[in-house]
Design brief:
Number of strands: 5
Shape: elongated
Strand order of the largest sheet: 1-2-5
Strand content: under 5%
């Protein structure tokens, strides 16, 4: 029995990512976003897991101290550090052109490297104030951090951002944002022209001369979600790409969490800084690997993507933590009681 041609074409077609960034909408253009929920989910999981570890005498913090620690770490470490990292590492011109926009967290733009470094700075001052070991706190914190990274990368996939290079792998995904962000016009002008022609034939009100009318990007995505014929017609000219957001979520999130959690539970009496060092090294290695599949979102540095370049110092930081851990051999007295 042969498979009908239309069904076979559907089965072999690459998925077109037209997922909606909003969980639901109060109005046509406003509603809570999956990206925001990803942060909330990461903080909630961090709280629950750190309480779980504290109750089992793993780490220095007591269960009743976790909520304040997570709240302040989320605000001063992840949010502030992630935003400043994005500005400094990827958009430094914002400091001169529009300095107040640095505070506009709701406009998007966060850097995982910045969030991680922000957490380092926060825990350093927190540990000094509490007169406890800075690496000792970090050993529990880095175990839960990959969960936040996982949720963030899933949100990136839903948003259709930070997509990968063109590929013909069976699981490749087509991202309409390659058209909206200009990657299609830059690298595949003939395909971009075909998309404009399709829009002109099917949704001409979205055009203004030879380009999209102001504010019609959202309308274009609405048509891609709601109009099957329009989605299929435009999708014919979009490129299948590596879903690099999912690669990052799996490696930097799920796999890294599984490794660190297993080591932390099995090696409860690890020297302060050992788990932290392992996190920095593995995260950096995983990030460097996955960046090979991802379209750079900024100019290269010495032939490396920004993600790869900023990961190199993290390996050095990780090695430094390991050296400290095995030289000092300081351990949590609570875990050995």
């Amino acid at each position: 029995m042969t498979t009908p041609a239309p069904l076979m074409n559907t089965l072999l077609a690459h998925y077109i990512n037209v997922l909606q960034p909003e969980i639901f909408k109060f109005t046509e253009s406003f509603g809570p976003k999956w990206y925001g929920l990803a942060y909330v989910g990461g903080f909630v999981c961090a709280y629950l897991l750190m309480v779980w570890m504290a109750k089992r005498k793993i780490g220095q913090l007591k269960p009743e101290e976790i909520s304040d620690f997570i709240f302040m770490g989320a605000l001063l470490g992840v949010m502030l550090g992630g935003r400043l990292g994005y500005v400094l590492f990827y958009q430094p011109q914002m400091i001169i052109e529009e300095p107040l926009s640095i505070l506009k967290l709701w406009d998007g733009g966060m850097a995982s490297h910045g969030g991680i470094l922000g957490l380092m700075v926060f825990t350093f001052f927190y540990a000094r104030k509490r007169k406890i070991s800075w690496p000792g706190i970090g050993d529990n914190l880095v175990v839960v951090t990959p969960l936040g990274i996982l949720f963030g990368r899933l949100a990136n996939f839903i948003n259709g951002e930070l997509y990968g290079h063109v590929s013909d792998v069976a699981w490749a995904v087509k991202f309409p944002n390659e058209f909206l962000h200009g990657d299609l016009s830059k690298d595949y002008p003939e395909q971009a022209s075909a998309v404009f022609q399709t829009i002109g034939e099917m949704e001409p009100q979205l055009l203004n001369g030879y380009g999209l009318a102001d504010g019609s990007g959202a309308a274009f995505m609405d048509r891609m979600r709601d109009n099957d014929a329009f989605r299929e017609a435009v999708g014919e000219f979009l490129n299948p790409r590596h879903p690099s957001q999912l690669y990052e979520g799996i490696l930097e999130g799920l796999v890294l969490f599984a490794i660190l959690f297993a080591v932390r539970v099995k090696w409860r009496n690890a020297p302060f800084g050992a788990i932290t060092g392992l996190f920095f090294i593995l995260y950096a290695v995983f990030r460097i690997v996955v960046e090979n599949f991802r379209v750079p979102d900024a100019d290269l540095i010495a032939g490396l993507t920004r993600g790869q370049f900023y990961s190199l110092p993290m390996i050095a930081i990780g090695i430094g933590f390991l050296i400290y851990a095995f030289r000092s051999k300081k351990r949590n007295s609570v875990t050995t009681a």
